[in-house]
Amino acid sequence: MELKNPSWEYIIWSYRIPKALTALLAGAGLALSGLLMQTLFRNPLAGPFVLGISSGASLGAALLIMGISLLGGVLSASLINDITLAIASSLGSFLVLFLVIGMASRVKDTMALLIIGLMFGSITAAVVSVLSYFTSSEKLQQYVFWTFGSVGGLSWSQLGILSTMVFVGVLLSIRTIKSLNGYLLGENYAQTLGINLRTSRYMIIVATGILAGSITAFTGPIAFIGLAVPHLTRQIFNTTDHRILIPAVLIYGSCILLLCDVLAQLPGQAAVLPINAITSIIGAPVVIWLLIRKRKMIF
Amino acid sequence: MEDKKNISEAKPVLEVRDLSIGYHKKVVCENLSFLVDKGECTAIVGINGIGKSTLLRTLGNLQPPLEGDVCIDGTSMWEMSPNQLARRISVVLTETVASKNLTVQELVALGRQPYTNWIGSLNPIDREKITEAIELLELKDLRGKKCHELSDGQLQRVMIARALAQDTDIILLDEPTTHLDLFHKVTILKLLKSIAHSTQKTILFTTHEIEMAIQMCDKILILDGCTNPFNAPCKLIESASFERLFPSDTVQFDANTGAFRIQK
After folding, report:
1. Domains of chain B, residue spans
2. Contact by Cβ (8 Å): A197, A191
3. Predicted confidence band at B230 (pLDDT cuts at 50, 70, 90)?
4. Alpha carbon separation from B24 to B27, B67, B76, B78 (Å, rounded)
5. Distance of residue B168 Cα from the nearest chain A Cα, in angstroms
6. pTM
7. Mean pLDDT, to the nearest integer, of B74-93?
8. A234: distance to nearest CA of chain B, Å?
9. What is the mean pLDDT of residues A196-212?
10. What distance in Å separates the CA atoms of residue B123 and residue A104, rounded to the nearest whole number?
11. A6-294 has which CATH code?
């Protein structure tokens, strides 16, 4: 067998390596934003998408795929590609994020934010279903494929944008480590420790938005990683200190999503399974098993 | 004469002047004025809903006052930055910690946050203060335990240790003895008193255990909705201040025994 096969080289350099890097970045970023949300809301069920970020992204994608086709048939075919999809979904997620930040300055109670995020999710889901009802089956299929999620198909330049965004998100999160540890006591106690609740809350929300928003824009929604990785990490590192938890979830999240991606593309198989399904099929039972073994999940 | 001597020698750490507290436009309690000296253990008593917790939350900067001023060592507390204030006042609330997954050691260490750098690293002084607090509250054997493994009394001691590690002039506690049995109530109160006297920290706490407070505290603030007297327990008994605390047809204060008696 020839070692230097130009088509293999092309596949590896332009497809497989970017895909693996995307999986690493997306896994790390989603896991970190999940940790941020769980600590901010002090709720073990929180994940990167509780603020409506993924619903915003899916609204953007749905409007592009299905909405434009309702307006003009010829125009739509040329407009929809990977890049416009990424732009539309990031616009959607940032729109929702800014709305949530706007609300955050008005509500004093952080738990109210959680409910506002859920409500945004319901509104966008409703709009998406209205769009799906009127659209053609072909467009609907295209949208459904987007919701499957995929870490493949990113060019090196797109990967550059994604890694910059993830890097900024990680930096912002590192900046909030002290406040995050204070939040473990509850907001009132955090305030008596001299933490500025408003500033730290904004920083945590913006970091989550940048991480989860940009990742969802490029890969589509990827479930489970953000919710479960922080829990899995807490099982291994027996600590609540974010100085340890943040690097730990970054490493753990990237490993797990890469593993899921490997499983989604089993060797010798031509078909690639949707990554969004794999993360849940493999991940959810693992969490259930851990919980049954440990008997309790305390945030 | 004696007043003058007090002002010149032991300056009051906490000075509350014409304070009105409440929410939005609803005044809960007004005309509060009192001075607390260094190393004094003070109880705040009063009927349910009179504003004990509101007062404590106001003093702890968890809610703004409606009127009046509170000075710590002569500086108005609302002129201080959150971090400066966190070095002067620590608070133990009735609410439990959000993450019961914290270990005793971690929880007490969080008390050092006002002093640590941007990422929260502990230096030798921080470690020393944490160890001191843990030893003073006899928590050495519980260090590695998680909060959900502790009893109510143990958790209360941990919360006090955290406030102590914060190393502030003033410690505020909201009903530190609720949910505890008689033995643990007395233990906690004795502990507060000894902390105040040995470390010269000023301790203020709200309580419903008026009879215990009379026996153990240096000063008592009675919130009765009008004059709000503040004095040493024996002086308050002399001035018959406890009599006005509850409706006299239900419970009456007996000045001789320092206890309340149920009216049949």
Report:
1. 96-167
2. yes
3. very high
4. 8, 12, 21, 18
5. 11
6. 0.91
7. 94
8. 10
9. 90
10. 35
11. 1.10.3470.10
> Using CB atoms within 10 A of its CB, is residue A296 exposed (0-12), middle (13-18) or buried (19+)?
exposed
Closest CA to A47 of A294, A265, A284, A290: A284
- Please answer yes or no on whether A192 and B119 come within 8 Å at the CB atom: no
Mutate to test the interface with B, among A114, A185, A298 (most CBs of B within 10 A): A185
Angle at B226 between CA B220 and CA B230, to 5 degrees: 20
B91 band by pLDDT with thresholds 50, 70 and 90: very high
How many CB atoms sit inside 10 A of residue A236's CB?
A: 9
Q: Which of A142-156, A202-216, B5-19, B28-42 has the lowest mean pLDDT?
A: B5-19
- Per-residue pLDDT, averaged over B3-32, amounts to 78
In angstroms, what CA-CA distances link A256 with A6, A54, A57, A269?
31, 20, 23, 21
Question: Could you give the count of Cα atoms lying within 13 Å of A265 in the half-sphere of its Cβ?
Answer: 13
A 10 A CB-CB count for B38 gives: 16
The confidence score (pLDDT) of residue A74 equals 56
Cβ–Cβ contacts within 10 Å for residue A127, how many? 16
Nearest to A182 among B87, B113, B148 (CB): B113
DSSP assignment of A17-35: HHHHHHHHHHHHHHHHHHH
Q: Is the dihedral of CA A121, A123, A128, A132 positive or negative?
A: positive
pLDDT digit string (tens) for A63-107? 888 887 766 655 556 677 777 888 888 888 888 878 887 887 788
**Could you read off the pLDDT of A264-273 as tens digits, one per residue?**
887 777 788 8
Mention every residue, 6+ apart, whose C-beta is less than 8 A from residue B242.
B210, B214, B222, B236, B253, B255
Token pair, residue B257, equals 């025994």
